[in-house]
Batch of 4 targets.
Target 1
Amino acid sequence: MSDTDVVCVTDAAETFTCNAYLVPGEVTTLVDAGAWDGIVDAVREHVGDIDRVVMTHQHGDHVAQLDAVCDAFDPDVYAYADHSCRTHAIEDGGTVQVGDEDCDVVYTPGHADDHVSFVSPTSLYSGDVVVHDDGAFDYGSFGRTDMAGQSRERLIESIRDLLDRLPEGVEHMYAGHGGVFHGDVRDVVETALERAEQREPKYPDG
């Protein structure tokens, strides 16, 4: 699979949503379902069907359209936490196929209690634990931790865990917000960790 095969199908959304990624291949996969009511039509512009949805976590901007996606495509749904659409529970240390690649499941809470990231030999699907750019920082940002149930300390631990389990040579990062990054993913994640460790508010005026 080349990086050009992965499509952010929520690019055209004018309402707040996460990035939802369509990954074609042996197991055509949607990473997160987003909150945009146009997602089903957007998926159908590229493929006739999807085999599975894998969820990084279940905040509303990632899961609001999951029911609609399931109604349209009847996919298997892989998620850490329970959901009415979930068909397969995933856990830290497990694997799940995304497109043509097997991804390791890394439990990465802090931003959300049920947050997981998916790591393949070439790609990182990081959800909201680490992003490339999001308006707060460019080249290495991290999920917000200022709301109830969130923890900066746990997020920092999660980013460290992610670095420990990130293979050498990962070149593509597909995060829940901001742009897709191609290059030295480890360096971006290390930069995010350094910023998170400073313990300063991510949005100081928020």
Target 2
Amino acid sequence: MTGERATTEVIRVMVVDDHAIVRRGLIAYSAAVPDLRVVGEAADGRQAIAQLRQWDTLGEPLPDVVLMDLRMPRMGGVEATESIAGLFPQVKVVVLTSFGEAERVHAALAAGAAGYVLKDADPEEVVTAIKAAVDGEVHLDSAVARQLTRRMTAPHVGLTSLTAREREILALVAQGHSNREIADRLAISERTARTHVSNVLTKLRLSSRTQAALLAIREGLIPPPG
């Protein structure tokens, strides 16, 4: 099967950023980390997806993690993340950006990102986010997490802003269903399901599906795990 991760413990990384100096810096730092190896780079989302398609067609192993800038020409990070999540779900995306607006965090995570780190974060935190993504965890930059915590509304106020369909979406997210599974259950397209999930996270000012699940349990939308 093409695109599978090799048996080596080394984590394969692709760097996507429209600034060459940022790419050079990330590549140089990664070279000093024994269990990381940069296997490719791209200047925008479109170029990144083309490279991933080429590797997959040739049967070459895909990167384990893509470090993705958000603001880029031609195709930005949110759109590229959504495409990668759909085309190559085994490839994790960690968003790396200078912008910490909560809305961008919501959009990136709803699109399938497995982490979010600011460009001025310590290099060690970037490595932590990469390793967390490989382990199936979601890592948020601590500064972003603090910002999101401050912006969260009181749960009851937030829930009143949801439509009946969005409350249904929230419950399904809390039960651990993916966007594709939500789409199948509600007979809607996966893109529509993804949009609903993004809207729910934005309205409730939550940063992840995990937070959405905790809120849904606290508000009685679903029973706590038994």
Target 3
Amino acid sequence: MTAHHPAAPGRPHRLDVLLATGGLCTGVLLWVLDLHGGPPLFGLPASLTLVALAVTAVAELLRRTAPLAALALAVPALALDVCTGTLVATVLMFTDVLYAAVLYGSPAAARRIPVYTVLVTVLATVTTAAAWPDPQVVLIGIGIAMVTMAPAWTGVITRDHRDAAQTARLRAEQTALLAEMDRTQAIVGERARMARELHDLVANHLSAIAIHTTAAQTIDDPSATRAALAVIRENSVQGLAEMRRLIGLLRDPEATTGEEPAATPTLDGLEALVEQARANGAASGLTFALDDARRPDGPDDGKPPAPVALAAYRIVQESLTNALKHAAPGEVLVRLAHAPGGALTVAVRSPHGDRPGPRAPGSGAGLVGMRERIALLGGEFEAGPAGGPDGRVWLVRAALPATGEEEQR
């Protein structure tokens, strides 16, 4: 059902103008033809019927813009019409004004007016029965109810249907808005996840390529240049293979090819990751070591859930990449252990300070990605300079829960 909207204040709706004009013309025609409902009462002149008709027509003009004011005009006009002969057109316009007062009036008026019509109907019927004890009083009571109660309660029913339709429409709009917000959040979340994966897959190889390319350009040593070019080629091939795998997963998550690595890295691949960092960082005076202190009898026999394992792997991968870019010569230590509460802790300690030779630029996106991964799992993360046994070090430490938040969902 279409909701009815009041016209601008002081400007009657065109339909109301048609109703008022039609009712006025019809009433004048009935008066000219002497088609009254009865004789005038209390010695009043019959011409006053036209006054009641005109006032009711004015009330009809205000039925939508000022419904309560229209009803205030129509009630005495109806009383005057009944006392001066009763024109059907006036009675019909009154019922429409009463209906409009309930439909377009305030919520309080819509609640009270129907109750008042019941009281008026009962009171008028009882009064008439007391003054004129005749069986026809029942018909008079029914006629009064048709003029008062019927339009008022019809307005209540119509208003309830209108409000229900508006509520349903608002609920549908809210549902559509929430669905759009969920879709937008899902897209943003997926884009952030893809950005983290893309950065973690490619940054390590590109950093090694940048460092060794700079070394090959600045070091005038054929053997060192050949070694740098070998590292560059190895990282280029591996980076290209990982990019192809990622693109394949994006196009078809269920597609697999026989010789491609698993889609989700595990902690079993950390040794290979450290070995690759060893080869890439040899020219920069960096050594790499892995200390896996996880308890064999820990949660899940030392094998955390897939989201936790992937986050730990990516943290180590990004930390090793940052060490290749910025760490001073020395040892980079990767340590995994189980905290007393069963959480998996990952710590990467690298020398902090100025380093000679070429270094790759950094953007800070790696630290942001690591923080996002840990936040999604409900863990703790810290990164920054710290004191160590050999002087100042850069420490990256993460505590990952035994069960990832994503898995719980």
Target 4
Amino acid sequence: MRLLLIEDDAALRDSLARQLEADGFRVDRAVDGEDGLFQAREYPSDVIVVDLGLPKLSGLSLVQALRKEGRTTPILVLTARGSWQDKVQGLEAGADDYLVKPFDYPELAARLRALLRRSAQAGSNVLTLGPLAIDMAAQAARLDGQLLELTAFEWRLLDYLVRHRSRVVTKQELSDYLYPHDEDRESNVLEVLIGRLRRKLDPAGTLLPIETLRGRGYRFTLA
């Protein structure tokens, strides 16, 4: 799971990142609201943790901006203010949960797991797209009733294309989702993955489920 942590307190940010990484999260870090908003837009995450009291752009404004753009990534806000008005304000801005400082890490971890479970359940219906049936919760796909053997990367690629099938997904966007943005990447890795996934989804070459738009990216075509 990829998590974006937006916190200006360096000690807290580093401590949380270490604990989250020990729990299996891949953590991206942002030090202020502007940096956090940029990373949230550029590097897709499974969940976002954001402090409300950020410099340059408040956490509240950041959450509002993401929701206004139609982004549905689960968001947990951290606040040093414990009044009910602040909590309501954060939730009305579009946050999914809140946690008041100071807090113990196990509580944060439990709340994140709950958010991720709810997010998975929200997408747990089996999608039927032509002869392809995709079970988001089980992370499984069937073609004409036959279970497809997909690698973890192939599944993540299919999942992302299907969830964003209403638009063109750029190569950069897919790479940012599949790999940490600070890693070196082979330029042809994504093309190889796309090719393998196409052959598994369309062995006869008749469905053409993934369209390549030259210079723009890819689009999932089955509906």
